[in-house]
Specification:
The structure is a single chain. With about 180 residues, this protein is α+β, with helices and mostly antiparallel strands. It has two domains: about 1-80, Alpha-Beta Plaits (2-Layer Sandwich), CATH 3.30.70.1280; about 90-179, Alpha-Beta Plaits. The chain is built from seven helices and eight strands. The chain has helices spanning about 20-30, 55-70, 80-85, 95, 115-120, 150-160, 170-179; strands spanning about 1-10, 35, 45-50, 75-80, 100-110, 130-135, 135-140, 165. Strands 2-3-1-4 form a four-stranded antiparallel sheet. A four-stranded antiparallel sheet has the order 6-7-5-8. Helix 3 crosses helix 7 (about 170-179).
């Protein structure tokens, strides 16, 4: 058994309210063990035997879609994969350590195409910067993300694939609690 984190899109945003207890029950129905949630934004930690990662994501998506009545894009990472995401330094410390800077990480199903990364680069500005690595995109925002002119919806449209964003502090909290 290994421990995984499912990052769910469309949980407790846009009118889709799901109680965390209900989400834990839904994951337990799939046979996952030691199911826990971390803050009410669609982060589910669970234990499961080794399985094809995409097959696991599809199984979770199908179950949640049936139970909740809408599509829930699902992005699963192992704890070691999350540690690698957090260990990566996509931006120089001087840029990241400025007052008001926020780092968000977008989880994807697979690496974005080179053309998608190039399109994303057109949104670079003094406020927003991006780096793609593997199945993640790192977004550094100098200021409030809500005022930056960029969003998760625009990210998905730009790269042409589903994604879900998490603040690096949330990810650090998950890693610290469940590692």
């Amino acid at each position: 058994m290994a421990r995984y984190i499912a990052f769910l899109r469309a949980i407790n945003v846009g009118g889709h309210t799901v109680k965390m207890e209900h989400l834990r029950v839904l994951f337990a129905e799939l046979g996952f063990l030691e199911v826990a949630t971390f803050i009410a934004s669609g982060n589910v930690i669970f234990e499961a035997p080794a399985e094809n990662a995409r097959a696991r994501e599809e199984r979770i998506e199908a179950h949640l879609g049936q139970a909740l009545g809408y599509d829930v894009a699902t992005f699963v990472r192992s704890l070691s994969e999350l540690a690698a995401v957090l260990d990566y330094r996509p931006f120089p410390a001087a840029e990241f350590d400025t007052a008001g800077a926020t780092l968000s990480i977008a989880f994807l199903r697979g690496p974005p195409a080179a053309a998608a990364v190039a399109r994303l680069g057109t949104f670079r500005s003094p406020v927003n910067d991006f780096r793609a690595r593997g199945r993640e995109i790192y977004w550094l925002c100098h200021g409030r993300t809500s005022e930056s002119g960029f969003s998760g919806a625009l990210l998905e449209k730009t790269i042409g694939m589903p994604a879900t964003l998490r603040n690096v502090n949330t990810l650090r909290g998950i890693a610290a609690k469940y590692a």
